[in-house]
Amino acid sequence: MKKNRFNSIPKSSLVLALSFITLLACSSDSVDDDVFEDIVSTDEEDDEEIATELHAAYSAFNTDAVTVYLDGSEVVIETTGLPNHETVYWGEGNSLYKEEPDVALTPSIMSSNNNATTIRVDATPNLTGSTVQTELGTIGIAVSGSSLFNDQEGGGALDQAAASLDWTGAHIGPGVYHYHLEPKAFTNDDDNLVGILLDGVFLYGRKCSATGDYPTDLDASGGHTSTTQYSDGEEEYHYHIINEVYSTTGSYLAFAGPFQGY
């Protein structure tokens, strides 16, 4: 008959082995507790901070057209879409009508019934994810209250619609009055705030308030990190209108992307 291997172990050795196993179990429990505490601590650190007040830059938006408020970790921007500056697209008879005989008119603002737009953006942009290309339609809201669009028009290059752009790089179609180019009505070769984009990153004019000159360290989206006139001395990531004339327009494209804050 074969011996039982367990019974063949000397009792003294068995006691010693059991003691060692118990010690390992206690040590394992201690390690697991430490790891658990580390995980909890990391999770707490990674929890997204909820903004308690709006960024100071929102104070530059046209309050006659734009309502801005916090909703948890997001900022809600509601706008009538109607700009507070002159343009031919207001239509004759309006106090803000500007005669522009060289503009190939599309329908006027007054004949469009869907200028109103609402967007939601992160109060604190997520700059750790992948870049995202812009799409047709509203890609942001300008300080005037009107929409910002990219470099495309109806699925094609902006060149085909350039003749319809007014003096401030905007027109109607589709639907809302919107800017494709540097909006000269409120930023013209300066560091003024242009607006907020869908990824929660602010867009400024061609110059940087930190240096008073054109930034030389912009990334592929026209963004960099520096102080702004609204950041209270703190550096933050933001976009600029890139200081390069766009195609045949003779002006500067507002924003083509990609977004960095998704």
Count of spatially separate domains = 2
C-alpha-based Rg, rounded: 29 Å
Strand order of the largest sheet: 8-9-5-4-10-11-13-12
Give the % helix: 10-25%
Counted by DSSP, the helix tally is 1
Distance, first to last CA: 72 Å
Sequence of secondary-structure elements: HEEEEEEEEEEEEE
Mean pLDDT over all positions: 83
SS-derived structural category: alpha+beta
- Biggest beta sheet summary: 8 strands, mixed
Strand content: 15-25%
Overall shape: it is: globular
As residue ranges, the low-confidence spans are 1-31, 34-46
What features would you describe in this structure?
The protein is of the alpha+beta class and 262 residues long. It has two domains: 1-47; 56-240, no CATH class. It has one helix spanning 11-46; strands at residues 66-71, 74-79, 117-122, 140-142, 147-148, 152-153, 156-157, 170-172, 177-179, 193-197, 202-204, 223-226, 236-240. The strands form three sheets. It has an eight-stranded mixed beta sheet, with no helix packed on it.
